[in-house]
Amino acid sequence: MIRRPPRSTLSSSSAASDVYKRQGVARPDYERDGLVCLEQLVPGELVARMNASLEQVLRGEFDTGTPPDKMPKPMRDARCSPYQRGGRVVQVINIWKASTAFQELVHSARIGQLIGSLTGWAGVRVAQDQVWAKPPGSGPPVFHRASTYFDFDPDVVVKLWVTIENLDEPAL
């Protein structure tokens, strides 16, 4: 179970509820392929707030009053500086500490339940969240195994990737 879930727009009445109804269909795919792609998992309203919040965090503005664990030096014009074509990839670790919008996603009991149902686990918890802001034309991310960074027993990690902007096919 995810710790300290805040009030969430990810309720059974939200636009994302159909995703949860299809989880029974997704589980065989997850068991066979080790991954599933669920569109519209997060309501558009929350995605828009996360996108705006990322801009604020990159400028050093934290609506919770607490900074994330790791981020680049605050930028005056967040969207232009790191996101220029061919620019560098920006990483923010544990942005939920700085942003109520990201808290809502990271602490979502509904997403925790979805992951539990896909994996067959009785409960799940978030070890860490990361934002990777990858501008067009930048290099590919470096391959790594997330489980090597954590001392878990058993050594099992599930990653949930959420895009907050539309992606072109080549970007995938």
Which features would summarize this protein structure in a list?
disordered N terminus, mainly alpha, 6 helices, two-stranded antiparallel sheet, 2 strands, single chain, 172 residues
Describe the structure.
- With 172 residues, this protein is mainly α.
- Helices cover 31% and strands 5% of the residues.
- The chain has 6 helices and 2 strands.
- It has helices at residues 17-21, 23-33, 44-58, 80-83, 100-106, 109-119; strands spanning 90-93, 130-133.
- A two-stranded antiparallel ribbon has the order 1-2.
- The longest helix has 15 residues, at 44-58.
- It is globular, with a radius of gyration of 16 Å.
- The model is unreliable at 1-17 (pLDDT under 50).
Gyration radius, in Å: 16 Å
- Compressed to H and E, one letter per element, the order equals HHHHEHHE
Query: Got a strand count?
Result: 2
Measured between the Cα atoms of the first and last residue, the distance is 30 Å
Overall outline: globular
Strand content of the residues, in percent? under 5%
For the report, how would you describe the main beta sheet? 2 strands, antiparallel
* Low-confidence residue ranges: 1-17
Q: Provide the residue-averaged pLDDT.
A: 78
Task: Please give the order of strands in the largest beta sheet.
Answer: 1-2
Helix proportion range: 25-40%
**Class of secondary structure makeup:** mainly alpha
**Secondary structure tally, helices:** 6
